[in-house]
């Protein structure tokens, strides 16, 4: 009764064969025919993938930013945070360092007595620094413990000041000893025992630099200007 029975049967058989082949592929290789993700779950999956993203470039960039943010600024920048009383007392304490070479330059004369007073004040200043460290370690609410490291290092400036006074007959060597003691004390306070406030460290750097240059100028003036006056208090020329 049908006009085209053969072509219809052939087309139907071809469709059936295609469906059978597709079904067998889906059963044997299910990963190739996985269903696409829903649009609603796509951002959540992307967020999870981003959390575990470990690209070397991004990791190095984040690590560098973390190091820059954790790096503390220079200690000298905290000088403006110093209490006014500490600043005024520190400036007044610099006068015995600066005054002797300044007077020698004004008079164009090397005065051993002024150089001796400058050296003696430097020795006293070193002893003061040792006492500051000792007292700082003995406070009840202290960041530094009264252990052997803190208490022994507080004695180092005192030893240098004592030795400078001991060899004060040779004034140049005594001044060099004071300079070395100031440098070692600053190194201990900034690097080995860094428990002081930042503003105090800034003041210590300023004081050490001023004292260092004042002592160096005094040593240079000894070879430039003629010597005049006694070498020690009470000594007759």
Question: What does this entry look like structurally?
Answer:
This protein has 237 residues and is an all-alpha fold. Helix content is 69%, strand content 0%. The protein contains 10 helices and no strands. Helix 5 runs antiparallel to helix 6, helix 5 (95-107) packs parallel to helix 10 (198-224) and helix 6 packs antiparallel against helix 8. The N and C termini lie far apart (151 Å). Residues 4-8, 36-43, 45-59 and 66-71 have low confidence and may be disordered.
The count of β-strands is 0
- What portion of residues is helical? 55-70%
Q: What is the first-to-last residue Cα distance?
A: 151 Å
| Backbone shape | elongated
Taking all Cα atoms into account, the compactness measure Rg is 40 Å
**Main pleated sheet:** none
Strand content: under 5%
Would you tell me the overall average pLDDT? 76
Are there runs of 5+ residues with pLDDT below 50, and where? 4-8, 36-43, 45-59, 66-71
Structural class: mainly alpha
Give the helices and strands as they follow along the chain: HHHHHHHHHH
Query: Count the helices. How many?
Result: 10
Please name the defining characteristics of this protein.
single chain; 237 residues; mainly alpha; 10 helices; 69% helix; 0% strand
Describe the structure concisely.
The chain has ten helices and no strands.
List the helices and strands and how they pair.
Layout: H1 5-28, H2 42-51, H3 56-70, H4 84-93, H5 95-107, H6 112-137, H7 148-153, H8 156-166, H9 171-192, H10 198-224
């Amino acid at each position: 009764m049908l006009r085209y029975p053969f072509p219809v049967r052939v087309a139907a058989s071809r469709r059936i064969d295609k469906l059978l082949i597709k079904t067998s592929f889906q059963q044997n290789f299910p990963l190739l025919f996985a269903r696409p993700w829903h649009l609603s779950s796509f951002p959540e999956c992307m967020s999870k993938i981003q959390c575990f993203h470990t690209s070397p470039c991004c990791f190095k960039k984040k690590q560098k930013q973390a190091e820059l943010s954790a790096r503390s600024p220079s200690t000298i920048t905290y000088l403006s945070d110093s209490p006014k009383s500490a600043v005024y007392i520190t400036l007044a304490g610099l006068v015995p360092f600066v005054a002797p070479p300044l007077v020698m330059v004004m008079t164009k004369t090397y005065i051993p007595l002024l150089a001796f007073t400058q050296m003696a004040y430097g020795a006293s200043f070193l002893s003061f620094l040792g006492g500051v460290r000792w007292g700082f370690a003995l406070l009840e609410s202290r960041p530094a413990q009264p252990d052997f490291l803190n208490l022994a290092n507080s004695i180092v400036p005192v030893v240098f000041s004592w030795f400078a006074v001991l060899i004060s007959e040779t004034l140049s060597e005594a001044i060099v000893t004071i300079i070395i003691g100031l440098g070692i004390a600053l190194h201990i306070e900034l690097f080995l025992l860094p428990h002081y406030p930042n503003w105090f460290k800034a003041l210590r750097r300023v004081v050490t630099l001023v004292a260092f240059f004042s002592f160096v100028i005094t040593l240079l003036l000894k070879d430039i200007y003629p010597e005049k006056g006694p070498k020690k208090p009470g000594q007759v020329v």
